[in-house]
């Protein structure tokens, strides 16, 4: 090769350009092997060229030498292109919104679900996307926040602060709210005790367990699942992480669960009537009546819960009176004094129902439900609640004194005192913040007082 410098032109650009250029030489031999040698820097650094120059020459038949000169400005240009492409991809991800989310809570839904064939008496169609949009519009990161900070124990009990769950069995259990079962189970026990005919043998224990299953997991589970169904839009505001508004469970699965629990509870009621030898289906009628009250409490056009007074009284009767009467009818007969006492305790149940209304004030107000806290304000509603609970028990104390049961009356009065203490310690300070702690502390004394009253009525 000649030593003097040769200028080769490619695409009209001279290779004898000024600037600092890195030279990479690749030598390919006939066997396909390659070796790379880095050349020396040439020229003085004045400016960075923006071009590529390929200088090729053939030294022999078996060798090919290619010199590729790549400028730093080309690398910078490629980096800018990558940043531009990344920015465009991020913009496209923001603009592309899935059907289950929306940039605004007022956006219209893209699809409307028809009423499933399994729910002939449920008049409202259910659209999961609409509920998900409302939940996202009010609290965008709530489901993720609940997933990280929610409690699995709360999820199983079906109370506020539950963790997000995907297991269908756990979701179905959450819909039934097991935390609401104990008052009904205890009501059955009080009715059995008040009958005076309960014995600690296998048959009576088995009867009482079946009656407790009917009242708690089945009929109360039916009530709570149906209430969640009709409150799905309210829950999208108050508790958007619950199974229905979050879309974790489908509408057909919810309706199938409602039917299963209702029919299962009524079937157990019929079995108990046969088992007890009733000629008139007393327990079945109580179960059917309670189911009807639960339906008109939650469902339009009646929707008793729209009115705080009527709704909570119906709730108190379902929680206390009906289970007590079912347990009494299973082992004995219904009497006027027992009906009177259970109705009095329904007023206490009315007060307990107000405690649960404080956590739903925002959603109730948005949907026009006149719960006691919405209608009267939080401060007045607190005193209505504690007044209904405490005055009811004091009235029953007076009734027991008049019936010649002074020791039972004294025991009930003693059990009322810690309830008042916990009311001032928790509930009257902040009913929304301390509702769970208050009920966990005070309600055991309330239900023990019910048992004392039941034992007094059987002697």
From TrEMBL:
<feature type="transmembrane region" description="Helical">
    <location>
        <begin position="380"/>
        <end position="401"/>
    </location>
</feature>
<feature type="region of interest" description="Disordered">
    <location>
        <begin position="28"/>
        <end position="48"/>
    </location>
</feature>
<feature type="transmembrane region" description="Helical">
    <location>
        <begin position="407"/>
        <end position="428"/>
    </location>
</feature>
<dbReference type="InterPro" id="IPR044878">
    <property type="entry name" value="UbiA_sf"/>
</dbReference>
<feature type="transmembrane region" description="Helical">
    <location>
        <begin position="254"/>
        <end position="272"/>
    </location>
</feature>
<dbReference type="GO" id="GO:0016020">
    <property type="term" value="C:membrane"/>
</dbReference>
<protein>
    <recommendedName>
        <fullName>Chlorophyll synthase</fullName>
    </recommendedName>
</protein>
<dbReference type="InterPro" id="IPR000537">
    <property type="entry name" value="UbiA_prenyltransferase"/>
</dbReference>
<keyword id="KW-0149">Chlorophyll biosynthesis</keyword>
<feature type="transmembrane region" description="Helical">
    <location>
        <begin position="309"/>
        <end position="326"/>
    </location>
</feature>
<keyword id="KW-0472">Membrane</keyword>
<keyword id="KW-1133">Transmembrane helix</keyword>
<dbReference type="InterPro" id="IPR011799">
    <property type="entry name" value="ChlG"/>
</dbReference>
<dbReference type="GO" id="GO:0046408">
    <property type="term" value="F:chlorophyll synthetase activity"/>
</dbReference>
<keyword id="KW-0812">Transmembrane</keyword>
<dbReference type="InterPro" id="IPR050475">
    <property type="entry name" value="Prenyltransferase_related"/>
</dbReference>
<dbReference type="GO" id="GO:0015995">
    <property type="term" value="P:chlorophyll biosynthetic process"/>
</dbReference>
<feature type="transmembrane region" description="Helical">
    <location>
        <begin position="338"/>
        <end position="359"/>
    </location>
</feature>
<dbReference type="Pfam" id="PF01040">
    <property type="entry name" value="UbiA"/>
</dbReference>
<dbReference type="InterPro" id="IPR006372">
    <property type="entry name" value="Chl_synth"/>
</dbReference>
